[in-house]
């Protein structure tokens, strides 16, 4: 399957799509605190759109280690403010909201129109999430995580990370399908309850997830698996990000979730040209 459905319209992912990140948080690991006012949010949104992203992903609750707790009311307020601005100035651009809370997902969809739900917990942190997205019918990004953001990097362990992440997806997909829901995107959850080694094992075997039959999203932008390996900082990790995004495209990724939209769009164009023999 290489498409999702939003507002009754099919969005093709046959040609990979870039998802631009808009963090309206004070403490995200890379760009926290940069986009909190209307002016700064719109500057970022305009940049994402002008550089060629096909989706804008809005996050209002940082899941980095040590990030401050954000209650549901505050998360909803931050998301609503940003989504309303996007709807006003760029109504044609599909929006994704990065939330693990079913109540937040329901409220945004009911009040501001259909949005993609990007759940870092794969339904493990709110037992109402699956029934909520099934009721809403909007695309759902099912991400793998081991543990929670608070403890996910405390000695993550797998006997076989590829097999176990695949088993997680198989079980979760079956539960969603049992609710009559099939509008799913899979995200292996790079950096969420994985060591650097686990992340590269998942990247190396990405093709083994293709036969699950759903689009694959890769969220690898400026993450620890890049800057820790290269002994640099997140600010210096653009080149590494582009390398990993290119590898992901060659292995079948359908969506790249990134901070740096222009570079990701260029990677998509280059890989597409190579595959078409241009």
Could you characterize what this model shows?
- The chain is α/β, with parallel strands linked by helices.
- It has a single domain, classed as Dihydropteroate synthase-like (TIM Barrel, Alpha-Beta Barrel).
- Strands 3-4-5-6-7-8-9-10 form an eight-stranded parallel beta barrel, surrounded by five helices.
- Helix 1 crosses helix 2 and helix 2 runs parallel beside helix 3.
- The chain is globular.
- The two termini are 25 Å apart.
- The mean pLDDT is 92.
Features of the shown structure:
278 residues; alpha/beta; TIM Barrel; 8-stranded parallel barrel; two-stranded antiparallel sheet; 9 helices; 15% strand
Radius of gyration: 17 Å
Spans where pLDDT lies below 50 across 5 or more residues: none
**SS summary, helix count:** 9
Provide the CATH top-level class.
Alpha Beta
Write the layout of secondary structure elements.
Blueprint: E1 3-6, E2 9-12, E3 17-23, H1 38-50, E4 55-59, H2 72-89, E5 95-98, H3 102-112, E6 116-119, H4 129-136, E7 140-143, H5 161-178, E8 184-187, H6 196-204, E9 216-218, H7 224-230, H8 238-250, E10 255-258, H9 261-276
Parallel strand pairs: 3-4, 3-10, 4-5, 5-6, 6-7, 7-8, 8-9, 9-10
Antiparallel strand pairs: 1-2
Helix pairs in contact: 1-2, 2-3, 3-4, 6-7, 8-9
